[in-house]
């Protein structure tokens, strides 16, 4: 075997090893959709359910799970929040390094007081966020979230049609995973553990 061939052979082995190592550390192990490297969603700046102004920088050092919903939601929102509650239980002590943020898509009805009753009712560590109608609309646009009022025929109230999924950010605040509605708590916990 010539010296030149040996060097080419060693270079190919090294390249293959690097590719395998990169693949193992990549999103191939996420159950949700990999968002690594995407650029969307300017940092939030909304008021929490205690009246404190919050933005994503407040949660650096924690994995953040961001969910857009509303408190009058009859099904999707409470079931998603219950799934997140179960996810936190599955994480055990690691759950202290996770911050769940519930951003209302219905700021007209979801006052600070309403959010304070609803969100921590699932887990006292969860934080509800709201803003003016314009602030919420800007955040919906930044995160590519659909939300629209739907009148209920024969009733004075309304519901909100909205996209329902979880955006997961790593400890540095970078978007990493999108988990669709109905993902099992065990699968959510699996993906969060990869970032913890």
Please, could you describe this protein's structure?
- By secondary structure, the protein is of the alpha+beta class.
- The chain has 2 domains: 1-30; 31-195, Glutaredoxin (3-Layer(aba) Sandwich).
- The protein has 5 helices and 10 strands, in the order αββββαβαβαββββα.
- The chain has helices at 3-24, 76-91, 112-118, 133-142, 185-195; strands at residues 33-34, 45-48, 53-55, 63-69, 98-104, 127-130, 147-151, 158-162, 165-169, 175-180.
- An 8-stranded mixed beta sheet has the order 1-10-9-4-5-6-2-3, sandwiched between helices.
- The longest helix is centred in the first third of the chain and has 22 residues, at 3-24.
- It is globular.
- Residues 2-25 have low confidence and may be disordered.
CATH architecture of the largest domain: 3-Layer(aba) Sandwich
CATH fold group of the largest domain: Glutaredoxin
Could you report the average pLDDT, rounded to the nearest whole number?
Answer: 87
**Main sheet overview:** 8 strands, mixed
User: What is the chains' assembly state?
Assistant: single chain
CATH class category name of the largest domain = Alpha Beta
Through-space gap between termini = 47 Å
Number of helices: 5
Overall form: globular
Topology, number of strands: 10
Task: Flag low-confidence runs.
Answer: 2-25
| Total domain units | 2
Order of helices and strands: HEEEEHEHEHEEEEH
Helical coverage, percent range:
25-40%
User: What is the CATH superfamily of the largest domain?
Assistant: Glutaredoxin
Helical/strand content category: alpha+beta
Q: Largest beta sheet: what is the strand line-up?
A: 1-10-9-4-5-6-2-3
Integer-rounded radius of gyration: 21 Å
Strand content: 15-25%
